[in-house]
Amino acid sequence: xxxxxxxxxxxxxxxxxxxxxxxxxVMINEGISQSILVSGESGAGKTESxxxxxxxxxxxxxxxxxxxxxxxxxxxxxxxxxxxxxxxxTVRNNNSSRFGKFVEIQFDKRGRISGAAIRTYLLExxxxxxxxxxxxxxxxxxxxxxxxSEDVQRYKLxxxxxxxxxxxxxxxxxxxxxxxxxxxxxxxxxxIVGISSAEQDAIFRVVAAILHxxxxxFKKGKEIDSSEPKDEKSWFHLRTAAxxxxxxxxxxxxxxxxxxxxxxDETITKWLDPESAAxxxxxxxxxxxxxxFDWIVDKINNSxxxxxxxxxxxxxxxxxxxxxxxxxxxxxxxxxxxxxxxxQHFNQHVFKMEQEEYTKEEINWSYIEFxxxxxxxxxxxxxxxxxxALLDEACMFPRSTHETFAQKLYQTFKNHKRFSxxxxxxxxxxxxxxxxxxxxxxxxxxxxxxxxxxxxxxxxLSESKCSFVSGLFPPSSEESSKSSKFSSIxxxxxxxxxxxxxxxxxxxxxYIRCVKPNNLLKPAIFENHNVLQQLRCGGVMEAIRISCAxxxxxxxxxxxxxxxxxxxxxxxxxxxDEITACKRLLKKVELExxxxxxxxxxxxxxxxxxxxxxxxxVLGRSASIIQRKIxxxxxxxxxxxxxxxAIRIQAICRGELARKVYESMRREAASLRIQKCFRMFIARKxxxxxxxxxxxxxxxxxxxxxxxxxxxxxxxxxxxxxQSHCRKYLAHLHYTKLKKAAxxxxxxxxxxxxxxxxxxxxxxxxxxxxxxxxxxxLEKQVEELxxxxxxxxxxxxxxxxxxxxxxxxxxxxLHEVQLQFKETKALLMKERExxxxxxxxxxxxxxxxxxxxxxxxxxxxxxxxxxxMVSKLEERIHETEKKYEEANKLSEERLxxxxxxxxxxxxxxxxxxxLEEKVSDMQSENQVLRQQSLLSPPVKRVAELxxxxxxxxxxxxxxxxEESKSNESITETxxxxxxxxxxxxxxxxxxxxxxxxxxxxxxxxxxxxxxxxGKPVAAFTIYxxxxxxxxxxxxxxxxxxxxxxxxxxxxxxxxxxxxMAYWLSITSSLLFLLQKSLKAAGAxxxxxxxPTSLFxxxxxxxxxxxxxxxxxxxxxxxxxxVEAKYPALLFKQQLAAYVEKIYGIIRDNLKKELGAxxxxxxxxxxxxxxxxxxxxxxxxxxxxxxxxxxxxxSLNSLLNTLKENHVPPIFIQKIYTQVFSYINVQxxxxxxxxxxxxxxxxxxxxxxxxxxxxxxxxQAKEEYAxxxxxxxxxxxxxxxxxxxxxxxxxSYDEITNDLCxxxxxxxxxxxxxxxxxxxxxxxxVSPDVISSMRILMTEDSNNARSNSxxxxxxxxxxxxxxxxxxxxxxxxxxxxxPAAELLENPAFEFLNE
Length: 1393
Known about the structure:
Blueprint: H1 16-30, E1 34-39, H2 46-60, E2 65-66, E3 69-70, H3 71-86, E4 87-88, E5 96-97, E6 100-107, E7 113-121, H4 139-145, H5 149-154, H6 179-193, H7 197-214, E8 218-220, E9 227-229, H8 232-245, H9 249-257, E10 258-262, E11 267-271, H10 274-304, E12 312-318, H11 330-361, H12 374-381, H13 387-396, H14 402-412, E13 419-420, E14 428-433, E15 436-441, H15 445-449, H16 455-462, H17 467-472, H18 477-480, H19 489-505, E16 508-513, H20 528-537, H21 540-549, E17 553-556, H22 557-564, H23 569-572, H24 578-589, E18 595-596, E19 600-603, H25 607-841, H26 853-934, H27 962-969, H28 976-988, H29 990-1005, E20 1011-1012, E21 1015-1016, H30 1017-1029, H31 1039-1050, H32 1057-1077, E22 1078-1080, H33 1094-1103, E23 1122-1124, H34 1126-1161, H35 1176-1180, H36 1186-1204, H37 1209-1233, H38 1240-1265, H39 1273-1282, H40 1292-1299, H41 1305-1314, H42 1327-1342, H43 1361-1367, H44 1380-1383
Parallel strand pairs: 1-12, 1-16, 22-23
Antiparallel strand pairs: 2-3, 4-5, 6-7, 6-12, 8-9, 10-11, 13-14, 14-15, 17-19, 18-19, 20-21
């Protein structure tokens, strides 16, 4: 549409937009109303062309708003509504308009659409009841049947094949058309044109009622010539139609089957036969549909509205094309009459006006003949002898039939050249129209021409309870009085045509001829004969003939000279007369056959094209010259501009490319980081799920395997018991037989063997003495190293104490010197000021100044003395700092040496224990050899006898069982040699099996064995193994040292809180079990208090000998008490030291993590100071609370880690109590040291953070939080003081007693002097309160109390082993299961017990 806007007519390809644009331009420019007549036969595209015209006019007409909707939108959306109720499928067209339509679009002065009106002509009412194959009824019936299911059920509809008015044809659907979607589109169009939802429901209710009316069939009734509904189906449709019309079903039946005749004397009721009843039914359906269509048109017109102030309009006529079917009835007669009228209008406009212009211009021309159809119009509509007049006359007589009407036509027009009678028909007639001959059948002419409503139908529907139905049939005075005035459709239609032609005559017409290319309704197929016939019938061929015969091209003299003067410029020189110039110009170009009129030049066909060709050549040559000159100038100018632009664009593009590359690199790096984290999360999640699943499966499998193993062991044990008793009996029997024979032969043999073994024992004794000497030497070295380490520690402690005292003295001296320096400096300043004042007060009378030389010398000497003292103090301070640094370096070196010595002692002790084991093994072997030397078996058959079963078990505590001891006591029995050999073998492998068992235990414990019943499996497993091995009762063993070394290696990664929490849970549980199980064996001499540090306890244990140092511990009654030897008690002390160390690591890690966050939390961010809220709670909701949230997240993270590792609650309480104390110290000290933190807004900010901590304590519960909240008392009271309003009204007693009772005077004075209000500019406390604080501070300083206002952090260990014992219970370990990995090892079968 934008392309055709403002384009000259004929400049672009033919299109309805071009015609619409031309009409709109003429209307705007000349102020003349326009009309566009769209003509053509059915199916040629008249309706679609009309839509395009209305779209273009709506596009050009702007957006005038009416009742919330634009007028042009309502005009456009009226087309789908009218098409749904007025269009149907015919033989030639799938969407044929069965009514005529003339749309008047009104425009205001600015060319905007201001109103519109739609006029309709001759709706084909008979199509409602009669449809021929393959045509369809009106679209609305099929749309309603295909509508939503709720509408179909509401109106009791179904398939269109079940309705009589629709199933007369076999065509129910159109290709490419979805009736359900069209139904919804029609509904939306109704909304736009202003039809309400209730009115839409009423419209479709009436449409459904018409369908149900058509299914009512009649049969003969009980009375003569009477009728009634045929069957139950007919009764159903009758009741449904009455329900939809909202009238009485009985009254509807009577209106269809009866007629009431009113005479002068009485009223007669006449029954109708079944055929008459069916005719009455069809008449009711037709009149209801006709009234419904008229109502829709009136509703659209009223909704759109008309502009009474509009002066111009554009009318678009879309009316039926010329029709000639096999059966042509009254509708085709009226349609063809319309086309004859429009053809006459076309003839008058084109042909007559053409010849009138020739006459007016007085040019030589001959009259051009054209076909005039006035005689056909006279034949049809002339009064009183026209066909319409005769039809009205026949309708007025009750007994007239179509046969009498046909005979009347034959008699009247037998000599008319346009009228003829077919040879084979008695009632048909033929009219020769301008488009061809058409044969009409008069069978239904009379019925279709009658325009009346049956009185019974009128009375029935006017009394309907539905206001919409009753509104379609309003009662009229004429009908009530039974007036006999006759009204025919033909006459009314003729009047409408006359009014239409008068409207068209008052406008300037434009014509669009639609040509149908083929009758197959398919694209890209052109039937030449059919197209030529349409052009001939539409008068197009005649118009072309007239144009070629006359002068189709004409221009005024001025236009002609202005357009073609360039063909001969010399003709125009010196000539002012336009006519003369035109003649000379035409003579110059050598044209023939043209005419010169009064005001115009008339040219023959083709001459204008020849002149335009010559003009184009001249213009082309001139344009080439101009272009050649200008292009060079423009090219150079363009080149210069392009070069400058290119340089700028290159710079911009390179910068943009660099930014994009940098941005892409950033995005890529960010995406890689996100992917890495996401993949890590997914992998960790999958691993955890897989791990948990594997653990569940392993638990089940191991349980099943353990049960099978237990069953097998029970069976094996029972079998072994039986076998042992049997073998015991056999061995005893065999022993008694051989005893007597063995005794007699052993004595001689033993003597011989004893002498041989004596020599071997002497050699072994020499080796044992060497080992014993080496052992004694190592013990001396260990004692010497232990003594040196203890001495070094004592020297280090004394040096630190001396260094501390010396530092304190130096600091006190420095403080005193600084005070003296300040006082001296203040006195000096006062004296200088006094001297200045005295100098100013002395009047300047004498020229010689008066100076007190003695005072000046005294002050100068004192000043020099003070400077000397200050320099000496600075030197002493410098020397003290150097000594302090040297002492620190020395202490670090000695500490390193002490650590190395401790590690060396541990290694020496391990070596010594191994040597002791070797010595004990050699002693046992020596004893065995001595026993063997005393034995002399006389016979060699002893070796061949079956050995006795060995039931002894060597434990890890280096002690044999009672049975082995008893067997050793028997030395003179000959059979004892067998047991001695077995014990010899067991003792040889004892050390190796001991190390293997300990290695397996340590390897298992180093893994994450998890928890059982909330207790660590590793701790319980270690305890069970130590208890079974009787390691607690052993005086010499290296198991405890290896366990301590294992714990030290496990906690090397001190940054991992989860690992630290796991080992804290293991060590604390093991310490509890040892505390409950071990009891001292009873020491002979009391011991000193044990050191508290880890290395102190280890050194103390190494320095004391196992035989002389035994700790006295109160008797414990718990799980299973054993008498502990020194290694077990030492192991317990070392384990307690590691518990304290791991506790301190976890606490310090949390402090380190919170330290950086606390530095950010003490002061509110600057971005939020301008918008700080008035309450701490609401302030905490700001984005600045991220730092506090990070602190909460850190606390929650550690709490979850401790809970997951089942750390005893007492440790959790102590950790959080000390951490909250650390938070209190850091925040409070930062508040006192930084003035920018002592503000009102900052107090609100810190208060909101403390509220978050309080909420965390409540959520963590007292079991874990303990008294953590009470540790924040200093910062809470300080912040509470900062956020109090009107501080100047508060007294000192209120501050110290109510607000800040725990803060010292120095701290309060510091806060009050640093405070400033950045929100309200309020004052701090009153000067009286400040002076009171200053006086109290002076008294405190006189009393030699500490002047420090800062808090110190407490990093001590706040619990003891006894407190741990009170928090745990022995019954918690009853159901704990040992490590599953060790249960599979045969050496750890005792764990299953």
